[in-house]
Amino acid sequence: MNDLTAVTSYSNLTYEQIEVGASVEVAHSVTRDDVALLALVSGDASILAADGLPAGQREPVCEGVSAEALIHGVLKRRLPGPGTTIVAHHLEYAGQVSMGDQLLAKVTVVAKQPPDRLVMDCVVMRGETVLLNGRVTVAAPSRNQTVDQRDQPAVILRRNDVFGRLFSACEDMPPVPCAVVHPCDADSLAGALEAARHGLIEPVLVGPRAKIQAVAKAGGWDISAYRLEDTEHSHAAAERAVALARSGEVQALMKGSLHTDELMAAVVPSATGLRTGRRISHVFVMDVPTYPRMLLVTDAAVNIAPTIECKLDIVQNAIDLAHVLGVPEPRVAILAAVETVNPEMQATIDAAMLCKMADRGQITGGIVDGPLAFDNAVSLEAARTKHIQSAVAGLADILVVPNIEAGNMVAKQLQYLAGADSAGIVLGTRVPIVLTSRADSVRTRLASTAVLKLLAHARAKAAPAT
Question: pLDDT for 22-39, tens place per residue?
């Protein structure tokens, strides 16, 4: 049994490769977005409106006909797979589909009709209930192909696919040698191997050999093609990975199953770490469904209560990253609770100072304005309502938060309440560093690694010839 969301690429079978009796089952858990997308296509807006629901019904539903979309997904992704064309069907529907329903779709080849037609028996079940039953005729693909899905975002929510553009931007670049620090659990090792499979990194696995090999064996993954640096424990792994970066053997670091503090403790020392003349900072690269452009949020992960000197580097780090990501003159909003300078609110004073620093050339490459409240930074309507005249207000590319608490809240609220995807990168170091989390989706891990790849190549290109 398979789940349509469990893999990031799909391969097909041609007409000649498929025999009568071939079959596949796919399980799918219905999400609210599934129901909403079907409502958008069908025009049945009542199922999305709370006041349109029958008494006692808390969640929107759609008719059993929606199960047809699941069948189409199985045919076009699994059997026959990419390149399949649906030419005819006769299907019967029953019941309703609700958010949270566990569905099971099955397609079976019952006849072959030269030169390329396949007749498929199709059924979708919810427990013992038959939601769809019938036959579909398809034209099978004429050649083998694999389509990369990369854990696609919810279609209905997105105005633009920021991460898709990141993936496209780095496709023609060679993979970046990257030390994966202590990949001693399934999530961190799988994330590194997935990034390698997509050509984003060339992983160097750093950590206890026996533990890494045990995780690979349990997951059924072949890691024999990758360099493995054996260390005694996680602290030693962090130190060895930093040494590899200092020597130029790797051009990036990726956190595995050790704590962030362990890794950063090896990165920060001036004599043995990876510090530069800049303050180390973190940037979230965010794809917010309701915002029409890429949004950078800084610093929500490294600097707890940055001084004005720290914020100077935090802003410049973010601007430089925006340039690499294709924003030639990013608009930088310095956030505070209000949009006017208040001597009793340090964030507003820091914002005013940063703006003056930008005026005097101490910050370059972007348009800086603040203080701006969050609404004024991202909403033109809010800025106009408050009569704010600014080249940044309502159009921000970068949000600079007052402290780590504010940054953490902004980033996580965008993720969990606004459906945003986020990739993270550490800047101000000799090489870019990705701090992965066990909660990260496949798409987030790949996007973070894509940012790492773009940044590593940009730095290599800018480095003076030796």
Answer: 999 999 888 766 776 666
How far apart are alpha carbons 70 and 79 in whole angstroms?
Answer: 13
Give the residue from 430, 431, 434, 429 showing the smallest Cα distance to 451: 434
Q: Is the per-residue pLDDT at 53 higher than 50?
A: no
pLDDT of 300-317, one tens digit each? 999 999 999 999 999 999
Task: Encode pLDDT of 140-198 as tens digits.
Answer: 999 999 887 655 554 434 556 788 889 889 989 999 999 999 999 998 999 999 999 99
Residue 51 in this model has a pLDDT that exceeds 50: no
